[in-house]
Amino acid sequence: MTRRGIDAVHGWLLLLPAMALLALFTHWPALATFLDSFWSTPRPRRPALFVGLGNYKSMLADAVFWQSVVNNLWFALGTIPLSIALALLMALWVNDRIAGRAAVRMAYFTPTVLPMIAVANIWLFFYTPQYGLLDQVLSLFGARAHNWLGTPETALVCVIAVTIWKEAGFFMIFYLAALQQISPVLGEAAALEGASRLTFFRRVQFPLLMPTTLFVLVNAVINAFRTVDHIIVMTRGGPDNATTLLLYYVYEVGFKYWDSTYAAALTMVLLALLATAALTQYLVLERRIHYR
After folding, report:
1. CA distance 100 to 190
2. Which of 15, 41, 126, 200 lies in disulfide reach of 190, CB 3.0 to 4.6 Å?
3. Could you tell me which residues come within 8 angstroms of residue 281 by beta carbon, excluding any fewer than 6 positions away?
């Protein structure tokens, strides 16, 4: 065997453990879920039957499914732009030489390291009617107590606020690392040319941050469609399914109603939505990205 062949075999052997784990814990479960979606859920005296597209047809007539899709779209629309914009603003601020910069960075990043269950319980205290921190502050201005998580008009907004608070600090770290990779010579040249800070950001910094923005955007979309833990703690999808997101509905169907094959069909729809969103982002934003 030639030296080139030996190197190729050596490289594939190094990749083999990771490829085996990926196939075993990612590709095979996805394929098994896809196959399960064409069968009925087995019961004690009723074996699984091949139903073809029956689960998908039932999905089209499922009002809760459509409401969960709409809720998830509003949830994504509320969390993705605001969390990314807030992360970028925080990164720009803590990248400057400000007093207590390390403490400010730690304060921004602290929500990220907290378990989501703990975060949900903290915000439950904030949203508690009459006794919660939010109602206590608003009462100083004469506002009446409000059941924030028990009202359909405000429940999803409250969940969106928790998600933004949790994710903005995580995305800030990526933007901060990218900002520190930008050469200070560019800032000095812009200052010599008389460019304002806004012009420098719009013409220099932001274009150089586009690879990071694409990475953060893909992660934000994935996070928006896989949110389930703080929904379980804070609202359990209520009131009246106002905060039922798609993944929570998959969890509810699979583990509360024990309809595993219908949950598999819902999962395939969720995966299709995520794949379409990721592909669209890469096709649209790839042309605007400037790699160095």
Report:
1. 27
2. 200
3. 214, 217, 218, 221
- 90-99 pLDDT, tens digit per residue, is 999 888 877 7
Environment class of residue 178 by beta-carbon count within 10 Å: exposed (0-12), middle (13-18) or buried (19+)?
buried
Q: Which amino acid is at 278?
A: A
Gap between the Cα atoms of 205 and 178, Å rounded:
10
d(CA 288, CA 280): 13
Q: What is the pLDDT of residue 17?
A: 92
Distant-in-sequence, close-in-space partners of 172: CB < 8 Å, separation ≥ 6:
87, 88, 90, 91, 94, 108, 109
- Give the list of residues 6+ apart from residue 290 with CB closer than 8 angstroms, or none: 207, 208, 210, 211
| 3-state secondary structure labels for all residues of 105-125 | HHHHHHHHHCCHHHHHHHHHH
Distances (CA, A) of 132 to 104, 143, 163, 216: 26, 13, 19, 33
Number of C-beta neighbours around residue 213 at 10 A: 21
Domains observed in the chain = 62-288 (1.10.3720.10)
